[in-house]
Write a structure and sequence with these properties.
homodimer; 224 residues; disordered C terminus
Chain lengths: 224, 224
């Protein structure tokens, strides 16, 4: 799990030349693209060599085997997903910020009609049962994602928008759960309906833990 | 999509002998087991022949190609998942019934530490982008699942437990979304935490649409 976020180097070597690092990165990018399109299992090292323009000896210089390359792809995809929404989560410190983040995700997947779903979710579905190393990396990736959502909720604790007794860890986990389910169903249906309803539910769930002003419309109507 | 729930026969033939039907079913079961363990892409027709004890000519008598067999596996897995929870959903006509259904799902996945996740969800993640036929079958499978959840909510409309203006289609979609996200995260983490938090959120979301007595604890406490 330490691999995520740390500087990754070639097998057995602490440093890479700039050119070596570029070659290694090129191999990972090519592998990540192939895996995103067709899954890990259908992607061969020959495919990766062809797509990255590298020889077998080059590829094996950087990766001991397909598992090692797959793990590097997991790390890369996790970074890619988190980096893509970093500006939305980093600047969010309110329910309105979370709603803007959710709307941006919905819009992104609406434009691509759900194709590809979530890169991390897809890898998790394919690898969790077959590779313990990959599963641990994916678990760490989800945990990082959840931590970034939680950081927004913690900020809302700080401003007093969120009630002091609201458990931000549980709320963040529930939001990530709705998001992952929504992305899988959007990938399958090519519609963002489940993603929208799931995220809407999750943010209303947060609103219920807020100090007045954000309450669920119907909850207010019932006037109990 | 019509394939789900209809009587399926050999390619080009309206009926099968009992023995033919048994052979066909044996091939599908063997394929479904292999796909569940290792995914569609890693499962070859040779694997299926070996596991089912059938020859190439037998296999091709029933299935034109791997895609045809894969689609039969999708249909079979959908039936299996829905049949397994049929007794819980069929008898449920209340929020308490939905809570019992959710608890049974959590317990099932706790016992197996999340391994395998949801067979339909796994197939959806692997096939939605690569096979349009499979995607449509999986979409139909999710729709059937959602319909069964919605039937419980409609029954709650009937008894007056659910408010008349509650949109049961949207509530059912939100429940399925939380369920799928929870299963994927449970498969990855080997813990049922996300599944529990997701389903709990979804059923509290339903409770908010109920006529008194089921309200979220904190919502009541806030007393607005």
């Amino acid at each position: 799990m330490a691999a995520i976020g740390s500087t990754r180097t070639a097998q057995g070597g602490p440093t890479l030349t700039a050119r070596g690092a570029a070659t290694r990165a090129r191999i990972i990018e090519a592998a990540a693209d192939l895996v995103f399109q067709q899954g890990v299992s259908a992607t061969t090292l020959d495919d990766v060599m062809a797509a990255s323009g590298t020889s077998k000896s080059q590829l094996y210089h950087y990766f001991a085997d397909k598992d090692a390359l797959t793990n590097a792809v997991v790390v890369r995809e996790t970074e890619r997903v988190l980096d893509a929404q970093d500006h939305l989560l980093r600047d969010a410190n309110s329910l309105a910020g979370l709603r803007a983040w959710a709307a941006a995700i919905v819009e992104f997947h609406r434009e691509r009609r759900g194709v590809g779903g979530c890169p991390i979710g897809s890898l998790a579905g394919e690898l969790s049962d077959s590779s313990e190393d990959a599963r641990l990396l994916l678990q760490a990736g989800f945990a990082m994602w959840e931590d970034r959502i939680r950081a927004v909720l913690d900020a809302m604790h700080g401003t007093g928008e969120l009630r002091a007794d609201a458990v931000t860890a549980d709320l963040a986990a529930a939001i990530l759960t709705a998001l992952q389910g929504g992305l899988l169903l959007t990938q399958t249906t090519h519609l963002t309906r489940h993603l929208e309803l799931g995220l809407q539910m999750a943010l209303e769930h947060v609103a219920l833990e807020c100090n007045t002003g954000h309450r669920h419309k119907k909850a207010r109507q019932s006037g109990q």
